[in-house]
Amino acid sequence: MKFDAYLSPSRHGIFYFRWPLPISDDQSKRITLRVSLRTRCPEHAGRLARQLTVSGEKLRESGALAGLRQHEMREMVRKFFQSVLEKNVDRVNERGLTPMQITAFQNGIDIHDEGVDGDTELSDQMINVVGFRNSADLTDDQWADNEAFLLREMRKADRDHLRAVLAHVKALDSYQFGSEVQTTGHASAVNNSTTLGDAFQDYLAEQERAKTWRGKTAEKNGRALDHLIEIFGADRVLASISQKDAQEAKKLMMELPSRRKTLPATRDLSLRDATKVDGLNKISVETLNWYLQAFAAFFGWAKKNGYINEKLFEGMKVGRAKATKEERLPFTPDAMNLMFKELTENPSGLVKSDSHKWGTLIGMFTGARLNEVAQLLIDDIKEEDGIWYFDISDEGENQKEVKNKASKRKVPVHSALLDAGFLAFFRSRQSGSQLFPDYRYTKSNGYGRNLGRWFNESFTPKLGIKTPRHVFHSFRHTMITRLIQAEAPPEKAKCIVGHEQAGVTFQVYMRERDRMAHLLTRLSFS
Question: Quick one: DSSP state of residue 235?
């Protein structure tokens, strides 16, 4: 091979290395990479060119230089899970699914939903990575370069394949005889007189009654839907809003200035007028998509409730380059030991209140969310058959909240908490209702603001273990990591940390409480 074919001098005598890149499907001509070697010496340029050529050949052979495009990887994932789906559907057609298998599928969907939201530990345990890699025939380099993206797509694909199987199971429980037997036409009738404002109030009342939205989510969704009223008007007949209207609304929202309600230039203007003001930053793509998702949810509800015939705003989210989300990390054993010593012995004097001490220790040994800990009532500490446990729920008088129905759970009190004197602390708090009375409720943060700020801004920084990826929520990741390391059964692990799963009742929990208490006790946090 003539290496000088890859060399070319500039008009100033500087040698450049030229390397042709592989032609992709969507390219009409070859692209050449051109790199300055920063030398006028032909011999030195030749040596550098030989080194670069060897490296280039290795990359070309491995396919790493061309890499994998996202649409190619998505197609690999789709084909693999299409095959898995077909096998599962065949199995259902042959012998159906037992109630236990249906529950397992439902649990898998819930775990993958948590994985898509960022809690990936349990989700990734369910994915058949080996089977996928064999199916896609990926090299080690291709997998290593694209692992994060592929895992993210596989979580979504596995979740949706499980949904498709359950939908098939459900379809087998009924018969469809076609539209010719529908003689009245009532199925497609809509209430043509309902206004957007009236439907909006019905929707909000239903969400409030069902406690679907809580805290920040309720605020953000309410704010999002207020834009619909501004765009269309409260008196607009809901059924008159068309797909074209939805597209125009999306265009308006894309031009909406950030902080419109507080900027002097826009705070007194209508939404439409505010979009015409030049030189202002627009709302972020993330915020825009939140609004569009809220719009789609509202119109989906309206269709289900007979107000309209067509769902609007579906699939309208704006695409964007995905930033790599920095997930929270579990604490190291050394960090856990350091915190435990400081919390129980306080050698540095960092712990100045029982609420900070015990709130943090409870988070450490339960993996509970920040607000779940901070909102605990005295009545939430219970004992049955000699086993003490935390009854985490939204029941009580003090605006308690949980993330979802699976977050309601009973978590045994870890033996380390008992040894550290938790029951003595608990018995000293028999007046009032809250376990931590100095934590105050706020609409946006629940009860967790005080504890979270102390832990994230004072305690861990002064101990020298604070990083952007280590926060109070890291206790949750630490607990999940330890459960996986202990090979805990998934249903028990989910009961402890409050991941969604079907078919688990309080009676099921109480039947397993001894084993769960033992499981927690034998977890290694150091």
Answer: T
Tell me the pairing of strands 15-20 and 7-9. antiparallel
* 8 A C-beta contact, residue 125 and residue 480: no
Number of residues in the chain: 526
Contact 378, 426 (CB under 8 A): yes
Do residues 131 and 80 lie in contact, with contact meaning Cβ atoms separated by under 8 Å?
yes
Whether the CB-CB separation of 290 and 224 falls below 8 Å is answered with yes
Domains of the chain, earliest start first: 3-62 (no CATH), 70-171 (no CATH), 192-304 (no CATH), 333-522 (1.10.443.10)
Long-range pairs, 38-46, Cβ under 8 A, ≥24: 38/14, 39/14, 39/15, 40/9, 40/13, 40/14, 40/15, 41/15, 42/15, 45/7, 45/15, 45/17, 46/3, 46/4, 46/7
- What would the two tokens of residue 376 be? 């605990």
Q: How many CA atoms lie within 13 A of 94 on its CB side?
A: 6
Q: What DSSP designation does 367 have?
A: -
Query: Whole-angstrom Cα distance, residue 343 to residue 325?
Result: 31
> Nearest Cα to 288, choosing from 224, 218, 231?
224
Residue 249: Cβ within 10 Å count: 23
- Per-range mean pLDDT, top range of 61-75, 183-197, 474-488: 474-488
**pTM score of the predicted model:** 0.47
Phi/psi for 390 (5° steps) reads: -95, 125
Tokens of 126: 């369910």
Asked if 462 and 63 touch (Cβ cutoff 8 Å), the reply is no
Query: What tokens appear for 107 in the block?
Result: 């649990």
Contact (CB, 8 A) for 184 and 178: no
CB 470 within 8 A of CB 459: no
Q: Would the CA dihedral through 365, 366, 372, 377 be positive or negative?
A: negative
- Whether 494 contacts 391, CB under 8 Å: no
State yes or no: pLDDT of 507 exceeds 50. no
Lowest average pLDDT, out of 318-332, 467-481, 500-514, goes to 500-514
Residue 158 has pLDDT above 50, yes or no: yes
Question: Which of 365, 484, 383, 489 has its CA nearest to residue 426?
Answer: 383
Neighbour count for residue 300 (Cβ, 10 Å): 15
Q: Which of 254, 251, 256 is nearest to 275 (CA)?
A: 256
pLDDT per residue as tens digits for the range 427-459: 998 788 899 999 998 877 789 999 999 999 999
- How do residues 451-476 score in pLDDT, each as one tens digit? 999 999 999 999 999 998 899 999 98
**Alpha-carbon dihedral 345, 349, 352, 357, rounded to 10 degrees:** -30
Strand-pair partners of 389: 382, 412
Q: Are 116 and 155 in contact (CB under 8 A)?
A: yes
Most distant CA pair in the chain, distance:
89
